[in-house]
Amino acid sequence: MTAGQVQHTGAGDNAQSAGWVREALREHDEQPGEAGRFPRLGSPQPLPGTVREELVLERIDRARRARPRVKEERITMSHGAGGKATQTLIEAVFLDAFRNPLLEPLEDAARLQVGGARLALTTDSYVVSPLFFPGGDIGDLAVNGTVNDLSMAGAVPLYLTAGFILEEGFPVADLARIAASMQAAARRAGVQVVTGDTKVVEKGKADGCYINTAGVGVIEHNVNLGVAQARPGDVILVSGPIGDHGVTIMLARGELDIEADLSSDTAPLNGLVADLLAATTGVRALRDATRGGVATILNEIAKAAAVGVLASEDDIPVRAEVRGASELLGIDPMYVACEGRLVAVVSPEDADAALAALRAHPQGSQAAIIGAVTAEPPGIVQLKTAFGGTRIVDLLVGDPLPRIC
Amino acid sequence: MRFVDEFRDADKAHALAAKIAALCEPGREYKLMEVCGGHTHTIYKHGLEDYLPEQITLVHGPGCPVCVIPMGRVDDAMALASHPDVIMTSFGDMMRVPGSNGSFFDAKARGTDIRMVYSPLDSLKIARQNPDKQVVFMAIGFETTAPSTAMTVLRAAGEGLTNFSIFCNHVTIIPAIKAILDSPDLRLDGFIGPGHVSAVIGCRPYDFIARDYGKPVVVAGFEPLDILQSIYMLMLQLSRGESTVENQYTRVVPWDGNAVALRAIGQTMELRPYFEWRGLGFISHSALKVRDEYSGFDAETVFSVPGVRVADPKACQCGEVLKGVLKPWECKVFGTACTPETPIGTCMVSPEGACAAYYNYGRLTRQRVKEASRS
């Protein structure tokens, strides 16, 4: 062969072709309404391009609405990354097993009616590495995370539990430091840790210290917050610059040889939420943008309310350090975790009051309106880029991996 | 942010877009190929197509490192990684590329020691820390990443490391471009040339495209204004009936390339007689292997590699997408059987793959975007 000559190989589904491919294709063939509609997509046919593209997009929409199924045989790191795989796992395994009306909305906290009281209940586990990082540690993270999940339900957080899974050999001094930090965070948020549990596993069976916290709070305002409440015309706000926590952790791992003057934004949001709910009755939904970042929240809004979301890149507050590190690593700050930022969906007439209330609080001084809810296209988040184009913002697939070139 | 914001200026983009539109001859269709996956990513991520008249179609090329890795090489890597003494290291992009028995991520979940690194030099650190293990770096990429692999081999040799090797899958861009130019089923008007590859090899290697095939080439940077300006430069050449090689990315690309990087590649690697490209088949002299003098760092010499050939799944049309014959959405399985979470083809894996870029960012026709922006 001469340079550049291509020898086409007979690409066929021979015996070596993988079983999972056949499986995927069988499902593909079973997509309802396919027969006759797409006779030979991919081969030349008389339909004009835009019409064919529309048909393909419809087909994709149908595939995305199909019942979620975990295709992997084993759990991979993607299942914990807060993106599409996490969502599929939750819906296909946990929701399927535990299905009940309280769980089904998949909000940050469940809302319960107990006697005359409306309560919110939530739980969260913490496996952050490193355990200590600029701006916080696993201890205050574990308290703030659960306080925030309760706050997002519009509840006043009251009591927390704390469960510890410790690895044999873990320094007691570190554990004491974590406990002290938890206590300080609890005091700041006005909650108490009232019960707990301790387990120790053999060396190598865990990574130092894992913490689970659960929390209960009482819903005092007459609010029924939920992302399914979003309506076209609503305004979307974020309470401050995004991505600080995620980038801080990535840099704190020390694998990247990048240094930046950044610290985690871990903080309790109950004070901020109390001020917001006192200032306006127009709040429809609150979410704290943890794993999966703001992009994931916007997708949850679009999906749960069957609405579109149009955000503006120019309006999303991002610190220069976070932007810089993200550019270097090839990741998008929209997907990077925060631990002290909320996203609020607010009716249009209350948007100014909500923004003013957030900005009046020290934790919301850089709050901003970042977008709006639209009627079309349902289930899809679009971003007006700073460059002036428009693109989709989808759920993240897998870890936020750096690109190689 | 300096060096970023000035290349994303919407006002300048509007001005350039108007100049591009003015150069379009009525009734003429223009097909321009961006060779590099990094360009594809930028185009979709910033919504650049919104600025282009409908007469201009951007065709996505083969320059996506993980997209062109055939399934057989993934299986070979997996065989290496499953050796009990081996720690495999890989760039993050490679982790989700499917072989016939799943991806590196799946293998990792089964207990295989595969670690993600950000630089090949990190693999040396792992080798030093694990003297009783063999560390194998999954080397992939075009001329962009080959120099860093070459430097890693040279450093390993300098340190006298005996437990480090690379599984070399480096490919070269020119034979792939030539294969596309010789492909009968595609008519292109010009090329947005690869930026970072050119930082290494320079602009001269593209001369044959302009001279022998009569197509203009503009080597382009990776910010959206870089690409828009390159499209303008291509359109200007086309309007004048010219075909030359131009360099838009002068802030990074020297006309003659980077001699130090080229020397490092030449010292440690040589061309293979042929190499299989995903969906494109075997292309002569299109990939690099470790030179015999450094065979101690060549995983294919140190270990026995099965060298399996696995046919691409019949339904997967990555080859047609990589050649730009098909738009991603024209593939039979796009978005249904093949999605970013369960990719069949490599183009759906890497953020630089045309299918993944289209699925994640561009899954709307221009028409629908306009309607949505109004609502």
Strand order of the largest sheet of chain A: 10-12-9-13-11-14-15
Quaternary: heterodimer
Strand order of the largest sheet of chain B: 2-1-7-8-9
The share of residues in extended strands of chain A comes to 15-25%
Note the main sheet of chain B: 5 strands, parallel
Shape of chain A: globular
CA-based gyration radius of chain B: 21 Å
Please identify the structural class of chain A as seen in this structure.
alpha+beta
Taking the alpha carbons of the first and last residues of chain A, their distance comes to 31 Å
Uncertain runs of chain A: 1-17, 31-46
Name the helix and strand elements of chain A from N-terminus to C-terminus, one letter apiece.
EHHHEEEEHEHEEEHHEHEHEHEEE
**Mean pLDDT over the full residue set of chain B:** 90
Task: Give the largest interface pair and sizes.
Answer: A-B, 82 and 108 residues
Order of helices and strands of chain B: HEHEHEHEHEHEHEHHEHEHEEEEHHHH
Radius of gyration of chain A: 23 Å
Helix content of chain A: 25-40%
Q: What is the number of strand segments of chain A?
A: 15
Mean pLDDT of chain A: 86
Shape estimate of chain B: globular
